[in-house]
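Structure in, sequence out. Go:
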């Protein structure tokens, strides 16, 4: 099973393999299998590939661009109403309306201006996606997310000033560092803030993220194969 292959027939097999690895990681860390949910990251993938994953039983998906998701998902959702769709990429305030309409979970809340825009749109539309705060655990200047030192203050602002329920935290560790310390930091912050959900771990490190308490892992390549289009 080469990762270079894009044969759609392999998607169900890869999905089963990832599910097995999640089960092993849960067992190894003494966690219940039900405590960890798999987000199949379908960014850049065509609807046909997504359909293969849905047919194989997958129901939770992640996309990183509002525009791309808007092009693919309304039709898929009409056919499969029980899908749970997560936004895992940066959200601009001018896309908030579309994002609230389309996504069940927005994982990338990371600044007061976005919190205000989300609060206004939720009030206006009556639709209330679940919200995670993205934390820039590596404090990388080019990366989205609130700095770890400001996470508590920001979560309080969301809750008290904007009346937004926050369900969890999300992080994307730096490419060139051991992810373990980032997962540990995110778990510690979530614990301190009384937040239940932890979205962390990708194709290369989801087993480790599970050991550190991930409740959602976001896996793309290991399910769909290498992305050929630009992200
Ligand atoms: C693309 C992406 C993933 C999935 O990455 P893989 O390495 O393909 O599993 C996870 N999280 C975010 C935020 C992403 O943009």
């Amino acid at each position: 099973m080469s990762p270079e292959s894009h044969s759609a027939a392999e998607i169900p097999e890869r999905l089963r393999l990832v599910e097995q690895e999640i089960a092993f990681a849960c067992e190894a860390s003494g966690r219940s299998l039900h405590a960890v949910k798999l987000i199949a990251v379908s960014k850049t993938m065509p609807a046909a590939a997504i359909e293969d994953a849905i047919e194989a039983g997958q129901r939770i998906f992640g996309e990183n661009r509002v525009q791309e998701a808007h092009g693919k998902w309304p039709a898929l959702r009409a056919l499969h109403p029980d899908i749970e769709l997560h936004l895992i990429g940066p959200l601009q305030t001018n896309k908030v309306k579309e994002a609230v309409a389309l996504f069940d979970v927005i994982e990338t809340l990371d600044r007061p201006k976005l919190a205000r825009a989300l609060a206004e749109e939720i009030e206006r539309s009556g639709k209330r996606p679940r919200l995670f705060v993205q934390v820039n655990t590596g404090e990388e200047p080019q990366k989205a997310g609130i700095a770890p030192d400001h996470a508590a203050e920001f979560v309080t602002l969301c809750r008290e000033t904007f009346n937004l329920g926050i369900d969890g935290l999300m992080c994307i560790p730096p490419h060139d560092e051991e992810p373990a310390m980032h997962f540990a930091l995110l778990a510690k912050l979530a614990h301190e803030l009384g937040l239940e959900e932890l979205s962390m771990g990708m194709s290369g490190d989801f087993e480790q993220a599970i050991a550190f308490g991930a409740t959602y892992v976001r896996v793309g390549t290991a399910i769909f194969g290498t992305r050929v289009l630009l992200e």
